[in-house]
Structures are given as C-alpha cells and as structure tokens.
Design brief:
The chain has a single domain, classed as 3-Layer(aba) Sandwich (Rossmann fold). The chain has five helices and seven strands; from the N terminus they run E-E-H-E-E-H-E-H-E-H-E-H. It has a seven-stranded mixed β-sheet with strand order 1-3-4-2-5-6-7, with helices on both faces. The longest helix has 16 residues.
Length: 194
C-alpha cells in the first residue's frame, strides 16, 4: 500500500451526516489527548493530515480518510471532563451511533497511554468492543516516554489490567520515534488483502 495516497474524505459532527458504509473501516478510538491524530499522521507520514492539538477534546467530529479501498475513521476522544455537558452528549450519541449503525467495521485500534494504567473509560471501551464482538488491537501510545524496562513492566501489567489482556494484541507505539508503526501497517495490509 502506498500510504502517501491517503485522502481526507470529510468530517461529520452528527450521526445523520455520516455517509453510507461502502468499504471496510479501520477505526481509531481512545480517550482525549491519547495521540490518535499523531498516530494517523505518523502512519501516513504526513504532518497535518489529522489535526493535532495539545488541548484535549479538540477532535469533536468523526474524521474519515480513504486509501486503496479502505476507510479510516478518527473518532472523537472520550473521557475529557472539561467540555460542556451538551457537547459530551453529542459526542456520546455520535460515538454510540457510529458503532450501532450498520457499518463495515473491519478493525478498531483502541489507543491507551502506555505511561499509565488504563482508565475506567479505557476499560469500558475494551469491554464494549469485546461484548459487541468488534475485532480490535490495543495501541499503547507515548512509548518513547518510558525506558525499555518501564515499557516491559507496563506491557506485563496490561496483561492483568485489561479484560482478556493476555489474549489481546498490544502494540507499543511512539509518534516521535515511529516504534510500532510497521506492526500497525502490517495489520492494515493484512486487512486490505482480505
């Protein structure tokens, strides 16, 4: 796959705006400021494809990108406390509606900050994916902030911190160093061959 050929498709803030699901979708989900946009930019080797912000809760829409018969969905971050209740409700409806509508969700990349144990929201997301039988991979972001020993300790801890942690594919990732990007691309290419 030529990752440079990715195209920004559109952003949608309301469920009713979403286009029909006409190709397999790879979804990026995680709490606010976990690094979803940074991961997307690193994956496609572009600095501004997905807007990165130091302010949590900046992505308030579902952003779609397309590449070679696949659609990539960058979901709004969950769990950020400092947004208005009405905005939180809109996000929740958008997120729940996205997963509940008849979309061709091929894989979910569930992002977790590697430096800390998963939050209650992270665990809720993983349980939701398991309960609804969505295929998913956990991507542990910001791995460059930890030493190799700390990374190994966190990966070990995740085996028990996450539901079915010992059965989940977990990829340490750094937007800064590129660690993990080849593993993620290999998974995407496998999806594209199916």
């Amino acid at each position: 796959m030529n990752y440079h050929n990715v195209k920004f498709e559109a952003s949608y803030g309301l469920l009713k705006q979403l286009p029909p699901s006409d190709k397999p979708e790879l979804v990026f989900a995680g709490r606010s400021n976990v690094g979803k946009s940074s991961l997307i930019n690193k994956l496609f080797n572009q600095k501004q494809l997905a807007r990165v912000s130091s302010v949590p809760g900046k992505t308030a829409t579902i952003n779609f990108f397309t590449l070679e018969g696949l659609r990539f969905a960058d979901l709004p971050g969950y769990g950020y406390a400092k947004v208005a209740k009405t905005e939180k409700e809109r996000w929740a409806k958008l997120m729940e509606g996205y997963f509940a509508s008849e979309r061709d969700i091929a894989l979910v990349f569930s992002l977790i900050d590697m430096r800390h144990p998963p939050t209650a929201d992270d665990i809720q997301m993983i349980n939701f994916l398991i309960d609804n039988e969505f295929p998913f991979v956990v991507v542990c972001t910001k791995s460059d902030k930890l030493s190799k020993r700390q990374q190994a300790e966190r990966l070990q801890a995740l085996q028990t911190e996450l539901p079915y942690g010992d059965e989940i594919t977990i990829i340490p990732f750094s937007a800064k160093t590129g660690d993990g990007v080849e593993q993620i691309k290999a998974i995407i290419e496998e999806m594209n061959e199916e």
